[in-house]
Amino acid sequence: MNKLPPLKFKDGKFKIMVVGDLHEGYIPREKDISKKKTADTMKLLRKAMDELEPDLVVLAGDQGKADNDAQMRAVISRITAPFTAHNVPLALVFGNHDRECELPLERQLELYAQEYNNFYTYDAVPELTGCGNCNLLVKDSNGKNDILNLWFADSNNLCENRNISYYDWLHEDQIEWYKNTAQQIKEEHGGKTIPALWFMHIPVCEEYELLREAKPYEVPDAVKGYGDRSKTFYVLKDHVEGYLGEGPACSEINSGIFDAWKETGDVMGAFFGHDHMNDFAGYYDGILLAQNKTASFQPYTDGCRAGVRLITLDENNIEDIQTRMYHFKQFGLKSESLGPVQRNFTDRQVIKIKAASWILGGAAVSIAAAVAAKKNRKKK
Ligand SMILES: [Fe+2]
After folding, report:
1. Ligand 1 centroid vs 12 CA: distance in angstroms?
2. What kind and span of H or E run contains 378?
3. Ligand 1 centre and the CA of 378: distance in Å?
4. pLDDT, tens digit, for every residue of 94-110?
């Protein structure tokens, strides 16, 4: 790892801002709309940095693509500009779309470290599957004791055999690395388990434990599951907060990492990107699973609800994870890239408006046809 100062709590608190799916590409950007989308994203990130003042920013994957060093440097410098002004520590995990790029992830990691002074992600064991698997210990406000651990894992790309699953999953060697490193950390801390948070791009299958099958009358407000679950409509269970805009697109194969967290006993909460619409959070079997919707206006998104997630931890009650989303709209920001409908309605509301107008339009046409037919009959 590079020689950066250790992360630490400040005045008893440690705040992490999670930024999902920026999808900034290296593009000539002569297209006005693309510039406007980037401008909206930057507006959100600058405002979030000013208002939330995080101690660490985590990019949750699918950051950007470029085909050579110079292009990637330009992308990195663009997406980190709102953080540079605050010199905030920055970490990331890679997503599946970060592979759609001529540059290997290892090179991307080097470029992030060169372009951003305070960049913390490293590739702990280069031989492991994926890139950027690592952990960071966080010290208390006095800078003496390690009281929190942060895990960063690469959820990999697409599955080679699409008959098994569309998305890949965390591989066995990564899970073994986690278990062994957690054990080593425990031994180095006098047998004490250090409470931890986990960051990864593609969510774990257990996210479906936060959902329940929709009742027939709930289907208009429900979402279809993903993959094997695509014949079922889901809504959030009552204890889960936030927004479900699409079926969680996890792997069809359960990697077993959730069970490993339970066995190891350190992970209190896990945070994911990947599904651009979802920002729900809830506990399953004692572990918080929290989604981040995209913070960007470049990919498919949800009107003015692009946002960031803030996690706040208190060193005197570390297991009490406080977290919530902050949306573009809630910050009172005005979008340059969205039209009036997207500015004012969620994506699911737009679908309903379109369906209603289609039904009403159909009904109006039917009524007009019936009236015309009646008139014709009278004429005869
Ligand atoms: Fe994405």
Report:
1. 34
2. helix 347-379
3. 60
4. 999 999 888 999 999 99
